[in-house]
Design a protein that fits this description.
The chain is of the alpha/beta class and 188 residues long. It contains 8 helices and 5 strands.
Length: 188
């Protein structure tokens, strides 16, 4: 089963992705984690990504897709994957779709985590106070939300026309949201 989790920063994708990974026994792919791992292991794609990141630029779609291709080829991914916010642009959505088709697979579920801006800002402020994440300061959050709306939100429309999406009310206790996710997957 291949599952894509989409939503703005702070919507709970990471938390729910980790819970899903554990519950379903599937690996969780998150773009940042995949890139950091490729850089750490000095893979050719990792070295290219490192140069781009160190220059302060965004990693290109072809590098992202190359890293995903390498991960999908691993035996651990044979039964499916949880894509945790991996698809951030329409070219990435198209590329992941093509990669999966080349393996005889499809994106089985696309889950959109719905949260209001006010709730997101509250969550990210709380996370910053606990974790001290620099990317959760107000200016960085505003930039990330703008990037999400401009680049990633159109991906939702793309998936709506290429197989559909399920919206998850991502407000409430972690266990409540997890139960909604499992119901959406037909597992509750």
């Amino acid at each position: 089963m291949n599952i894509l989790l989409l939503g703005p920063p702070g919507a709970g994708k990471g938390t729910q992705g980790a819970l899903l990974s554990q519950a379903l026994g599937l690996p969780r792919f998150a773009t940042g984690d995949l890139l950091r791992d490729a850089v750490k292991h000095g893979t050719p794609l990792g070295l290219r990504a490192k140069a781009v990141m160190e220059a302060g630029h965004l990693v290109s779609d072809d590098l992202i897709l190359g890293v995903i291709r390498a991960e999908l080829a691993k035996p651990v991914a044979a039964q499916g994957v949880i894509f945790d916010g991996v698809v951030r642009t329409i070219p990435q959505a198209q590329g992941v779709d093509e990669l999966l088709r080349s393996l005889g697979r499809t994106m089985d579920h696309v889950l959109i985590f719905d949260v209001t801006d006010a709730q997101l800002l509250q969550r990210l402020a709380a996370r910053r106070s606990v974790e001290g994440r620099a990317d959760d300061d107000p200016a960085a959050v505003a930039t990330r939300l703008q990037a999400y709306r401009q680049q990633t939100a159109p991906v939702i429309s793309w998936y709506e026309t290429h197989g559909g999406v399920t919206r998850i009310d991502a407000v409430g206790l972690v266990d409540e949201v997890a139960a909604r996710v499992m119901r959406a997957l037909g597992r509750a």
